[in-house]
C-alpha cells in the first residue's frame, strides 16, 4: 500500500523533479478528464522503470502505466498508487531502413522521422496521436496500415521488473489488440523495419491522410479519438449516425456532429458523463441494429467518492 515513505522510496530511484504527488490527471489525457494520481512518476532510464516496478511489487503499491492519454478515459476518482508515464523516454534513431523509437515518443513523430529519411511504411501513423508504447499496446492503425506491418521487435519490462527483448510475433498482434496488457508488459522501445522510398511520394501520402483526418474528425474539441472498434461487417460511426445519436449529450459530453464515431468533451464534461454517454450509445445501437459495439478506448481509475 502507499505510505508516507513512498515518496522517499521513489526519490531513491529517480530525481525528485520526476515525482509529483496529487497530480491532476486531466492534464495528461486528450479528453481532459480524470481525477488525481497519488504519485505521478516520469522516469528517465530503463533501469529506473525496472526499479519502480520492483518497488511496487515489494511494497504492494498499486501501479498503473499511463501513455500519452490519447485513447484513454480516467475516472473522476483518479488512480491510487504510482502512475508511471514514460514521456521522458522519447528518443528516435534511424540506421539505414531500421528505426528504433522509445515508447514515450509520439508515433506521429516516428512517422515524421521516417519521412525525413525518405523511408516508407509509417505513413498511416502520421495522424495517430498516441505514443509508440501505446501504439504497440493496441496495434494501432489507420487508413489500411497498422503497427504489425512494420514492427520487428520490442524491449519491455515484465511484471517482475525484468528486461526482455521480444519479436513482433511474440506479441500476438491482432486488430487493435496485443498480449501486452495480458502479460503486464511495459514497452520501452520498438524497432521498425521500413523501406527506402521517394520523399515527395511519401509526403504526398501523409499530406493526403492528414487532410482526411482534419476534415472529418472533430479535432477542435477534447476527445479520446475513435471510441469503438469496427464491428465485423459494419462501421461503428455509420451505426451511431443511423441511430440518430449525433448531437446527443450527457452533461458536457456529446456525440460529435462532425464524426459519429467520436464523443467530445464539449463543455466541461466529467468522466462519469462521458462514460454514461458511451453506454447510452452502446445500448441504443444494440436495440436498433442488434450489434454490440466494443470499446476501443480504455477506461481506468476509480469512481468518485459518494
Structure description:
The chain is an alpha+beta fold. It folds into three domains: 6-85, Uridine Diphospho-n-acetylenolpyruvylglucosamine Reductase, domain 2; 92-201, 2-Layer Sandwich (Uridine Diphospho-n-acetylenolpyruvylglucosamine Reductase, domain 3); 218-300, Uridine Diphospho-n-acetylenolpyruvylglucosamine Reductase, domain 1. Helices cover 27% and strands 26% of the residues. The chain has helices at residues 6-11, 46-59, 107-116, 132-137, 180-183, 199-216, 236-242, 271-289; strands at residues 19-24, 36-41, 63-66, 72-74, 79-85, 92-95, 98-102, 119-120, 141-142, 145-146, 151-157, 163-167, 186-193, 195-196, 223-226, 249-250, 253-255, 262-265, 298-300. A hairpin with a 2-residue loop joins strand 6 and strand 7. The longest helix has 19 residues, at 271-289. The chain is globular, with a radius of gyration of 20 Å. 44% of the residues are buried. The mean pLDDT is 95. Pfam families: FAD_binding_4 (PF01565), MurB_C (PF02873). It is an enzyme of class 1 (oxidoreductase). Its cofactor is FAD.
Key features of this structure:
Uridine Diphospho-n-acetylenolpyruvylglucosamine Reductase, domain 1; Uridine Diphospho-n-acetylenolpyruvylglucosamine Reductase, domain 3; 19 strands; five-stranded antiparallel beta sheet; four-stranded mixed beta sheet; 306 residues
